[in-house]
Amino acid sequence: MTEQIRLPNLPTDKDFDGESFAPIYTTTVTVSGGIASHGRASGIARSADGVLDLNLSMPTELGGDGQGTNPEQLFAAGFAACFHGALSLVARQAALDPAMISVAATVAFGRDPEDGGYLLHIDLVVKWPDIDPAVAAPLMEKADSLCPYTKMAWQGTPATITLAS
To answer: Cys-Cys with 66: which of 3, 60, 96, 123 at CB 3.0–4.6 Å?
Structure first.
């Protein structure tokens, strides 16, 4: 017997009027170890629950051995998964089957001409076979407004940096 996956009950209406951020889910991933002298992430990335446990290394394009994943791949995976989830949710609400939707996120790491530092560039490509573009466009727009990754990328996101004792 195949067990049916219980879908989360996440509203898509913008009906929250709280005075501050209201977390629904929180996770922590810690990166430690590795070669720090090159200024790029290396070592191990491990989630607090142990489900995520990955070796990090520089990609071959940056002189690494490419034997692990890197921050850009992890960010691309998270971004694609988040947008895919948001689009699947609004598709189901529109009585459409989201099974054929795929989202590819391309993340480019490069130099920022504004300040000489570094910057990420993100491109999302949605594949949704046999959908009328006129039907897909408003659903993609709604998914864009719901996905916290797109909100973070387009508007910025609050962040804190604290030195632990």
So the answer is: 60
- Classify burial at 56, counting beta carbons within 10 Å of its beta carbon; exposed 0-12, middle 13-18, buried 19 or more: buried
- Closest of 46, 147, 21 to residue 88, by C-alpha: 147
- Answer whether 0.90 is exceeded by the pTM: no
**What DSSP assignment string belongs to 119-146?**
EEEEEEEEE-TT--HHHHHHHHHHHHHH
* Residue range 51-66, pLDDT digits in tens: 999 999 888 888 888 8
Of the candidates 85, 78, 75, the one whose C-alpha atom is nearest the C-alpha of residue 142 is 85
Which residues make Cβ contacts (< 8 Å) with residue 89, sequence separation at least 6? Answer: 10, 12, 143, 146
Q: Residue 135 in contact with residue 114, Cβ under 8 Å? A: no
Q: In which element (H, E) is residue 148 found? A: helix 148-155
Using a 10 angstrom Cβ sphere, with 0-12 exposed, 13-18 middle and 19 or more buried, the burial of residue 73 is middle
All domains of the chain, ordered by start, with CATH? 24-69 (2.20.25.10), 70-156 (3.30.300.20)
**What backbone torsions phi and psi does residue 65 show, to the nearest 5 degrees?**
-90, -10
